[in-house]
Design brief:
heterodimer; A: about 140 residues; mainly alpha; Cytochrome Bc1 Complex, Chain D, domain 2; two-stranded antiparallel ribbon; 5 helices; about 5% strand; globular; B: about 180 residues; 2 domains
């Protein structure tokens, strides 16, 4: 009996995690909409990932894709430190997009570092929409 | 601190004291323990630091630089070696407390003391690679190993060659250079 309960428990875990990232993203998108952004489009989010910024080279991290690769379902690598970056898409990495503060922290760091400015609510909404629509 | 944490803490203390005794006896004992690295800088045991800083790069142990270096580095996180590494004010305070409190000039680990001794009083290097001790220890590396080996990439990637770097152990016999042998 305990065994069955245990097995059922593990079957529930992925469902709960999936719900958690969906709820986090929904809250963030609602907040961006309150800022006046929307509707959000996955294609725009994908374009942001690949957009080349500034005059630097890929090895200097001139785009989000330079470290994260063009496919958020695969692992990336930090261009300078060589550190592996786990996939961004929650479909393959359930740890992603579960904590709104963490999401915002990385938008701040990486938008400023790569684009040289903070991202707009529209850009953030598009990007999250892109990540969550990947299967 | 609850009871459980206390017990774990005491257990760890006993274990580490025991480990220290075993390793301290003689060279032959040390050889027997090869494979169990002896930390020569204190390993990182701070989750906040590991996640905030270790997400992008090797989590350099606080004992690799003196407190004044960490202070200088933390005041410039908005422009951190060409990247933005901003943290919240609360996180910054906690990181400062951890890094300066366990800095090379505040702890008694062998390699920390040597690093600290190699830095002039007025200097505040924010790269470990700039310290006299680091440069002395790595002077035998050929330019090829230093710069041309794409698997190393940069001398800042401790863990690329020092297999036990994350445990705070940088002994020569633990070095494995990718594509170069020992």
């Amino acid at each position: 009996m305990k065994k069955i309960a245990f097995m059922l428990g593990w079957m529930v875990v992925p469902v709960v995690l999936a719900d958690l990232h969906a709820a986090t993203v929904d809250d963030l998108l609602a907040q961006y909409q309150r800022d006046g952004a929307g509707p959000f489009r996955a294609e725009q989010g994908q374009a942001l990932l690949n957009q080349v910024n500034g005059s630097g080279s890929a090895s200097e991290g001139n785009s989000c894709a330079a470290c994260h690769t063009t496919d958020p379902r695969g692992a990336g690598k930090h261009v300078k430190t060589g550190k592996v970056i786990e996939p961004l898409a929650p479909a393959v990495n359930r740890d992603r997009l579960q904590d709104a503060d963490k999401v915002e922290k990385w938008f701040v760091r990486n938008c400023k570092g790569t684009l040289g400015r903070v991202c707009t609510s529209q850009e953030k909404g598009d990007f999250l929409t892109f990540l969550t629509t990947l299967k | 601190m609850n009871k459980m944490q206390k017990r774990v803490g005491i257990g760890l203390l006993v274990l580490s004291l025991g480990g220290g005794l075993v390793l301290g006896v003689s060279a032959s004992d040390r050889e027997k323990n090869e494979g169990k690295p002896r930390a020569d800088v204190a390993p990182v045991q701070n989750t906040l630091y590991s996640t905030e800083c270790g997400a992008c790069h090797f989590a350099y142990q606080p004992g690799l630089l003196p407190a004044r270096s960490w202070e200088k580095l933390l005041t410039g996180l908005g422009e951190h070696f060409g990247e933005n590494a901003e943290v919240s004010p609360a996180t910054l305070t906690a990181l400062r407390e951890y890094l300066t409190g366990n800095a090379a000039d505040r702890v008694d680990h062998g390699r920390s003391r040597k690093i600290n001794a190699s830095i002039l009083d007025g200097e505040k290097p924010i790269r470990v690679t700039e310290t006299g001790y680091f440069q002395k220890e790595h002077r035998e590396l050929s330019p090829h190993m230093r710069e041309k080996n794409s698997k190393i990439g940069s001398l800042s990637r401790c863990e690329a060659c020092h297999t036990q770097a994350a445990q705070g152990s940088f002994h020569e016999h633990e070095v494995r250079m990718p594509g170069e042998g020992r």
